[in-house]
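TA notes, week 10

Several of you asked for a full example with nothing omitted. So below is the full record: structure tokens for the whole chain, then the designed sequence directly under it. When grading your own attempts, check the secondary structure regions first.
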């Protein structure tokens, strides 16, 4: 089933009295929503690349190792609205969901994370809606990353629209751990014996990786001071 049919079927199930032409209108509204969030992602990525290129010019190095992005699938958007008891509509999605658009920034060093977060806060034209520092305050399983949600102004032909974009900023080491943690937990689902021991071991790995991250940061500082 393609995205269009999924949206239409979901709306038919929830609002069966809608006429077919009304369903088509709602579907195209979802398409416009997707375009808005995709445009917001591109603006965030463009700004990050501007900062990265400026660092390269001024300091002869790039703080950003990689940039990834994603938009929630139609199935994911509709499913989350249903689980939270919200209406299934583009307006409802814009009002209640803050993580439709996401950008993940992989940095070389911990200091780079905070430098980029600061630049995005004061030097980008984006409005910061929320921040969560899982580096200074890791999650119980050892997860570390800096999260922020920014409101991005997108200049459309009809005027300025605002879209929230969730930005996760982490080091290469943090991303390595998070990627494998997700994979290992997925593999262990349904096996309680494996899951119980896995959580503690993953936490120990996260702590060890964090220590290495700090050591690499310290070595980088020492080299720059020579």
């Amino acid at each position: 089933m393609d995205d269009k049919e999924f949206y239409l079927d979901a709306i038919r199930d929830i609002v069966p009295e809608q006429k077919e032409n009304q369903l088509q209108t709602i579907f195209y509204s979802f398409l416009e929503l997707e375009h808005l969030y995709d445009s917001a992602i591109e603006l965030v990525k463009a700004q990050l690349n501007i900062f990265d290129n400026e660092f390269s010019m001024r300091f002869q190095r790039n703080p950003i190792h990689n940039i990834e992005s994603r938009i929630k699938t139609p199935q994911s958007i509709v499913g989350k609205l249903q689980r939270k008891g919200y209406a299934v509509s583009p307006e409802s999605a814009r009002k209640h969901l803050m993580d439709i658009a996401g950008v993940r920034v992989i940095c070389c060093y911990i200091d780079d994370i905070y430098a980029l977060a600061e630049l995005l806060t004061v030097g980008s034209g984006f409005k910061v809606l929320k921040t969560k520092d899982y580096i200074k305050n890791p999650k119980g399983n050892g997860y570390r990353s800096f999260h922020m949600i920014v409101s991005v102004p997108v200049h459309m032909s009809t005027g300025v629209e605002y879209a929230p974009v969730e930005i996760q900023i982490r080091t290469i080491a943090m991303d390595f751990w998070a990627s494998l943690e997700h994979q290992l937990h997925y593999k262990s689902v349904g096996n309680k014996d494996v899951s119980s021991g896995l959580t503690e071991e993953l936490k120990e790995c996260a702590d060890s990786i964090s220590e290495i991250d700090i050591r690499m940061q310290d070595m980088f500082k020492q080299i720059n001071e020579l």
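The chain has a mean pLDDT of 88. Use that as a sanity check on your answer.
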